Amino acid sequence: MPHVLLIEDDTSVRDGMELVLRRHGHQVDAVGTGEAGLELLSRPRAGGIEIAVVDLMLPGIDGFEVCRRIRGRGQLPIIMLTSRGDDLDVVSGLEAGADDYVVKPITGRVLEARIRAALRRAGPVARTDTDDFAGLVIDRAGLSVTKHGAPVPLPPTELRLLLELSAAPGRVFSREQLLTSVWEHDFLGDSRLVDAAVGRLRAKLEDLPAKPRYIQTVRGFGYRFGPV
Amino acid sequence: MRTRTRSRGKPAGTAATGSAARFRPRPPRLDGLRGRLVITVVVVALISAVTATGLAYEESRDAVLKRAQSAAVEDFRNRVDRLAAELDVPTDPRTMARFASDVSSGLRGSLVVAQYRDYTASSDPSADRTRITPELRAAVRTRSRISLQRVQHGGKPWLVLGAPVGLDAAGPRGSGGRLSGVEIFAVVSLAEEARDTADLVHSVQTGLAPVLLLSAVLALLAARTVLRPVRRLARATRRLATGELTIRVEEKGRDELAELAHTFNETAGALEHSVGELRAQEALARRFVADVSHELRTPLAAMTMVSSVLEEDADQLTPDAAHAARTVSAETARLARLVDDLIEISRFDARAVALTVHEVDLAEAVRGTLAARGWADRVEADLPPGIRARLDRRRLDVIVANLVGNALRHGAPPVTVTVRAADGQLSLAVADHGPGLAPEVAPYVFDRFYKADSARTRSEGSGLGMAIALENARLHGGTIELAPPAPDAGAVFVLRLPHRTESAS
Fold this sequence. Notes:
The complex is a heterodimer of chains A (228) and B (505).
Chain A: E1 3-7, H1 11-23, E2 27-31, H2 34-41, E3 51-55, H3 63-73, E4 78-82, H4 87-95, E5 100-103, H5 108-121, E6 130-133, E7 136-139, E8 144-147, E9 150-151, H6 156-166, E10 172-174, H7 175-183, H8 191-205, E11 215-218, E12 222-225
Parallel strand pairs in A: 1-2, 1-3, 3-4, 4-5
Antiparallel strand pairs in A: 6-7, 7-8, 8-9, 10-12, 11-12
Helix pairs in contact in A: 2-3, 6-7, 6-8, 7-8
Chain B: E1 3-5, H1 13-22, H2 33-84, H3 93-106, E2 111-116, E3 119-122, H4 134-142, E4 147-153, E5 156-166, E6 179-189, H5 191-241, E7 247-249, H6 256-313, H7 319-349, E8 358-361, H8 362-372, E9 379-382, E10 388-391, H9 393-410, E11 415-422, E12 425-431, H10 465-475, E13 479-482, E14 492-498
Parallel strand pairs in B: 9-11
Antiparallel strand pairs in B: 1-7, 2-3, 2-6, 4-5, 5-6, 8-10, 11-12, 12-14, 13-14
Helix pairs in contact in B: 2-3, 2-5, 5-6, 6-7, 7-10, 8-9, 9-10
């Protein structure tokens, strides 16, 4: 039974979401402020929480800050709730570490699908081999990445993106392909999700994120792993 | 030209430079104010100079001639009176000749002709005597006094004097004097006097040119003082017309032009104020729509979230409650769509939209749009492969979905989508085979909430779809046009976008 942390300040929206998520079999901790949510995460038994759904517009510390603090303490997947449809909000949220976002009003079905997809990204993958790309070691069985021996902790979405790209070094993936395979979005997924995740991944993997070695941009087409 | 621009608001920079570039000062024109003023002043100066000269010339010529004339008459009379005493009648030609030359010598050598009965004596026999006209001879014959006539001969003025010679000293003057029967004529030259007056005219002529030049210069200076403020006003008016409402002109002096400048400034101020008010009101109205939409979104978020619960459990409700639950659920979804569109159009109004551009395969994108909405079977798509362009895929989807959705709802099948690329332009035509749009409806199809069919008060769309599609096209630097009606086609909407590719950008 997936355990969801829901941070949403509007009581009706929060109650509605809690209701729907419970009906879909989730265990839900619903709070009204970012402070309360972070406090919940810091409790000893918080290990059970598998995903956070965070509204961006919150009283007190806002959703962006909540995202940053959650990312600062671990690799919990985060889905942002935006109510503005404001492009800048989406970009800022993705930069703060969110894995995905939904725009309110949203149906329970869509939210549930996004949560499931995010959780699947943390699950096991088909291949179980280990690759060493000039010091960057990707262990597909242990779902871990090390660079020159030092572990590189990655949230599920970034890890899954890296696995997807590195599974076929040199092959070009379009943003649409990645949205479908990694995020499980339909064809109209927001390509900024891919760009933001690539940016975060480069910041952790590359020596010079401005001159990427591992994840390279193929202008006009998408991204490619290597050649290293 | 100096203009004061108020610091409030941003100066219409592009409009200002644009107008400055467009409105070059024109070359001076003859029919312009300056030309007219100069011509008028010069003509007035010319007329007054000529008139004054003319009058002075008349006066001085008359005076000169009169003086010359009376001097000649006096000399003539004195001479004749003195010499008449030596004359006896009947006389002989020799005496007559001597008499004539004697008179002549007293008149500075003028031609003198004496006549007695049928012979004539002249002081200069070779001289032309036609200057003594028959009229003068007749006058002398009938009158006892000195007669005189001015004649032109050989291009020179002459004064011809004539008198009957009396035997007594008082003869020619008194009526009682005895006449000798001798008539005497003298032809006195007036060339000197004519030259004097001609000199006057000549000096006026040489003086006229500098006077006219001076008056022209003065007229130009006068025109400048009038024209400069006029030109300044003209330029300010043009800039005002291009939307630079902060433009003002300098109010210098207290004349009518300064008054005009003041009026202009007042007008510009009033215009700026009312335009500002209108803009503020419009912004307020748009802001209101945006705020309302956002306020609606939160309750809608809660309703949308739980409406699926109503739908899922409707089967367990009584038929009426189930119907109500399904209606609430469906209408909630619709309301959510409407609010979404309202927020979207508000963001276009507030220019808070941005493109996320990537190179897109057009055929693939259009096929995706049709497939995602389950329209693939209902639409005939002519999509040439390999057309790639830099576009915002999501916005392209909105455009295509709205155009195709509109055709499916309001037109008749088959609906076709045709993509072409030519001359740096992409075109995507969506056509249906219905009756097409009535000409009176065509201008309004992109208007918000415009409903072609007034009977259908509610359609499946929000009423904003076409407006949003057009805004999205414009955001790409493109446009959507309604093709002119053709006999075998229904309504045809053509999306045109600039064809940019990765290598070309």
